[in-house]
Amino acid sequence: MEISGVVLGAPDARSLAAFYERLLDWHRDQDEPDWVKLVPPGGGTGLSFQTETGYVPPVWPHAPGDQQMMVHLDIRVDDQATASAHAAASGAKLADFQPQDDVRVHLDPAGHPFCLWTEPAL
Questions:
Q1: Where in the chain is the domain with CATH 3.30.720.120?
Q2: Are 39 and 29 in contact (CB under 8 A)?
Q3: Taking the chain (122 residues) in consecutive chunks of 10 residues, what is each chunk's mean pLDDT?
C-alpha cells in the first residue's frame, strides 16, 4: 500500500486549490468543478481538494464542542519569517495561538491549520 495523496474538504475546491498553488508553487494535475489535485514539481504525493456541502471550518485550537481539525499540514521551510510573510501574501491568516517557538501555525482560507517549521540548528 502507498498513500497517493491527502484530501482537504472546502466550501470551494478550486478556490482552496488556488491558494495552495500560490503557497507551494505546485501545479494542477486534475481540475474538476468539485475536485482539484495538485502535484509537486518533482513528483511525489499530491494534495487534493474536494467541495463539501455544509463545510464547517475547524477551530484552532479547539475547545469542547468546537469543530475539530481532522488533519493539518506540516511544511518545512528554510526561513520561517520569509515563509510566514509568503503565506500571508498568498491568503493565509496567522493563527492567534502559537504553541511552539520554532513553528508558525497559519490558517488557510478554508480554516485548515498548517504549520511552517524549520530544521533545528546543529
A1: 1-53, 56-122
A2: yes
A3: 91 98 96 96 94 91 76 92 97 95 94 92 66
